[in-house]
Amino acid sequence: MTNDVPGAVPRVAVVIEDDADIRHLLETVLTQGGFQVITAGNGLDGIEAVRRYEPLVTTLDVNMPGMDGFETARRIRDFSDTYLIMLTALGEEIDAMQGLDAGADDYILKPFRPRELRARVEAMLRRPRAMATDAPAVVSAPAAAAPVTVTAPEPVHPAVVEAAAVPQPVEQHLPAAFQPRPVAPQAAPTPPPIQQVALADEDGWLEHNGLWVNPQTRVVQQDGVELELTRSEFDLLAGLMRTTRRVRTKADLVLLLRGESYVTSHFVSDADKRAIEVHLANLRKKLGENPSAPRWIETVRGVGYRLTAADPT
Question: For 216-252, what is each residue's pLDDT tens digit?
Fold first, then answer.
């Protein structure tokens, strides 16, 4: 899958990896996926590459000499909304939590299957990339749609990479079109009059107990104050708002974030489910939820999550 359309802007990926063999493998996989690839062997060079080339996707190793992947991810998130995938041999839950807290969109264990990496990248690209400040202030009413879903990639397993033709080296210096472009923040729209259920109104807002979500502008307001959520936190909240009191399992929410269907937990790993727990824990923290008496999101023990009941009028 390459960009063969004359004048088309190529997709750019940055690979930050200190191991030369893995760096070359990642470059090969992403190049075959239609990306122009910029490589860096350490965190500082990787941050500069992301700043300079504005990549659509960035892969990031955790265990690097000097600045580790967690700190590198935090610094990248200060200025970029690139899709960020952490690749690491660290499989403990606390490591996944640190990666997601640092701003990673996905967390893949080494050794990984090249085709799984390609599948996860393409799944992320099907999700909206615009953040709240990138959206217009006024929108028309969206249709309340059910989450989109398709077969999830297989769990991570050690694998021998099949021999493949190595593509021609990729030019490391890209046109000026890839230089950073300033984005002017725009004012968030004022929510419409209060409703008592999470239903879309004429301007596309969903409301539940004073919490307002607009899926088209990707704006969230809590009691009149706009909240800053990550892409994954927003998608989980919007998904729960759309389905109100219906319980969403962790496997279902994993596939919601991937933009895939076939809700079959066999294709969702334990690490994926733990990532949902981390995202929702961070979301609840930003909402100021009281775990013992939640106002917006409640846990259905052993099943999943759903919205709380609407406050009485």
Answer: 888 999 888 899 888 888 989 999 998 888 888 888 8
Question: What's the average model confidence in pLDDT over 111-117?
Answer: 82
- Which run of H or of E encompasses 206? strand 206-208
Joined together, the tokens standing for residue 303 give 């099943």
Q: What share of the chain is helix, strand, coil (3-state, %, to 5)?
A: 35, 15, 50
Sequence-separated (6 or more) residues with CB below 8 Å from residue 65: 18, 42
CA 109 to chain centre: 17
Identify the structural domains of the chain with CATH numbers, from first to last: 11-138+153-178 (3.40.50.2300), 206-307 (1.10.10.10)
Overall residue count recorded for the chain in this entry: 313
Look at residue 201 in the predicted model and tell me its pLDDT: 52
Which pair of structure tokens corresponds to residue 83? 């899709």
- Under a CB-based contact definition with an 8 Å cutoff, are residues 58 and 82 in contact? yes
> How far, in Å, CA of 205 to CA of 226, rounded?
14
For residue 205, pLDDT over 80 is answered with: yes
Nearest alpha-carbon partner for 138 in 205, 200, 236, 185: 205
In the numeric block, which tokens belong to residue 186? Answer: 């725009």
Q: Are the CB atoms for 32 and 164 separated by under 8 Å?
A: yes
Tokens 């960009």 sit on residue? 3
- Report which secondary-structure segment, H or E, holds 21: helix 20-32
d(CA 120, CA 239): 20
CB 108 within 8 A of CB 154: no
Q: Which residues contact 173 (CB under 8 A, 6 or more apart)?
A: none
Omega prior to 111 cis, within 30 of 0: yes
